[in-house]
Amino acid sequence: MRIAGAVAVAGLAIAMYVSTPAAQTGAQSQTAPPAPQATFRAATNLVEVDVVVLDKEGRFVPGLTVEDLEVFEDGKRQSVQQFYLVTHVRGGATSPDASAPVLTAADARGRRIFVFLFDENHLSNESLARVKAGAERFLATQFGEGDVGGVYVGGAMYRGRLTTSKVELLAGIRTATPAFDRRSDLLVAFREFPAVPSEADAIRIDYGDRRLLDDLTEKACTNSPAECQREGGTQQVHNKIEDKAKEYVRFARTLTSQTIQKLNVVASNLGSVPGRKTVILLSDGFFTDEVRAEIRQIAAIAARGGATFYTIFGRGSDGVGGRTTDVVTAEPSTVTTHDTAEDGAEILAAGTGGFVVRNLNDVSRALGLVARDTSNYYVMGYQPDNTVMDGKVRRIEVRPKTTELRVRARKGYVASPLPQMQNIKIGG
After folding, report:
1. Which of these three, 231, 255, 279, is where a domain ends?
2. Residue 116 lies in domain
3. Which residues pair with 102 in a beta bridge?
4. Are 424 and 1 in contact (CB under 8 A)?
5. In a shared domain, residues 267 and 355
6. N- or C-end of the chain: fewer Cβ atoms within 10 A?
7. Where are the beta strands (DSSP E) in 10-126?
8. At which of 196, 228, 255 does a domain end?
């Protein structure tokens, strides 16, 4: 299969393919169900919103119609011109009696597309090993016929393409290697004498909070007078804490800049691929304090192109830094007194309609949660009342008409025309 056309990746025009072994192609052509009878609008300024609808027990709700949901843009109710269900439940549609058209993997718009994005600068050796093993198990057990995948590793899409080949995806995953310099290395130094309690404290010191610097110095020398003396006294401890904090912030900014660039490339270059794209960010978190606006912009760009971000933290249940015991969360945290490492991932997920998975040692299970979430959803399409594609971010809110339902959908998008959709064709 080939996606006709080219996608610019890191400044280079690289053709992106979806390749299928010939034997698999033949099998698909014999077993694939007929294309659903549904009419789709092709306007590049049509806004499509993927909506996951759950009941109070967290189960997907089938059988809904366009009358059950409302969509608002910048607070104004929009007229929905397109509504359909995408399902990957074996044996057919989740709701065969639903009035909405139903798409399956037989249609390019209904394919499951998984992009694994390795944040190598922020994954410790242990975390990287954990997420690689989980991704490999996911491919072996849950990546099915008709699914499409890609691996963004080392600053580029592996082999410059998407593929249905598990062998190729496994090879891509196995190329992920720890960065030479990582955020986790500096965090180790935080725990050494004289300690800096958190990233938030380092930021405050870097911004010139002398009172905090004095307090940490006094605490260090009061609690460990012998070590304070070995360092050369109070002034030397004071200088070391300040240097440690400033070095961390300087280095963290560099690593975060590289991660932001990766996120931006992926978010910007999936818009021409039909259907929902599930981008799985594998990370331990990154320095977010100064880049919140950039991350929100990336989320809005991704949302416009139909990409949904999910984040799986590689630390596992024994990792340091998790703020809650929740495994899955859909909303960004408002906590500002601790490290900000998780905030960027939460902004991305909430902005695009995904969620964050934390505190799971079995990453294949975490990926299973993501796969289940992207296997059943509704799509609402509308022509915005404000038809000017001015590049600004517009807010979206999807509301159910009954309190029995809970919905999760992207929170906004960048008002810009979509690139022309490129057909995915099965071939040798």
Report:
1. 255
2. 2-176+256-425
3. 85
4. yes
5. yes
6. C
7. 12-19, 47-54, 69-73, 76-77, 80-87, 102-103, 113-118
8. 255
Candidate ranges 211-220, 316-325, 326-335; pick with highest mean pLDDT: 211-220
Q: For residue 313, which phi and psi values (nearest 5 degrees)? A: -80, 130
Question: Which of 297, 245, 265, 279 shows the shortest CA–CA distance to 412?
Answer: 297
Q: Are residues 7 and 95 in the same domain?
A: yes
Per-residue pLDDT tens digits for 327-374: 444 444 433 334 577 899 999 999 999 999 988 889 999 999 999 999
- The bridge status of strand 356-357 relative to strand 307-313 is parallel
Q: Which of 105, 163, 176 is nearest to 134 (CA)?
A: 176
Separation CA 260–CA 281 (nearest Å): 12
In this structure, the strands spanning 69-73 and 76-77 are antiparallel
HSE-up of residue 73 (Cα within 13 Å, Cβ side): 21
Question: Same domain for 79 and 110?
Answer: yes
Alpha helices in 207-325 (DSSP H): 210-223, 225-230, 234-268, 292-304
- Together in a domain, 243 and 266: no
| Number of domains comprising the chain | 2
Beta bridge partners of 356: 311, 329
Does residue 120 share a domain with residue 247? no
For 74-131, the pLDDT digits (tens) are: 999 999 999 999 998 754 444 444 567 888 777 878 899 999 999 998 998 899 999 9
251-309, pLDDT tens digit by residue?
A: 889 999 999 999 999 999 998 898 899 999 999 999 888 899 999 999 999 999 999 99
341 CB neighbour count, 10 Å cutoff? 27
Domain identity same for 140 and 156? yes
**Long-range contacts, 207-215 (Cβ 8 Å, 24+):** 213/238, 213/241, 213/242, 213/245, 214/238
As a whole number of angstroms, the distance between CA 416 and CA 46 comes to 10
* Dihedral of alpha carbons 184, 190, 191, 196, sign: negative
Is the alpha carbon torsion for 6, 8, 13, 16 positive or negative? negative
Sign of CA dihedral 183, 184, 190, 192: negative
- Do 290 and 237 lie in one domain? The reply is no
Q: Where residue 375 sits, what CATH number does that domain have?
A: 3.40.50.410
The encoded tokens of residue 64 equal 């809904």
Alpha-carbon distance of 185 to 397, in angstroms, equals: 41
Closest of 189, 36, 27, 180 to residue 106, by C-alpha: 36
Is-contact 73 384, C-beta < 8 A?
A: yes
**For residue 187, what pLDDT is reported?**
75
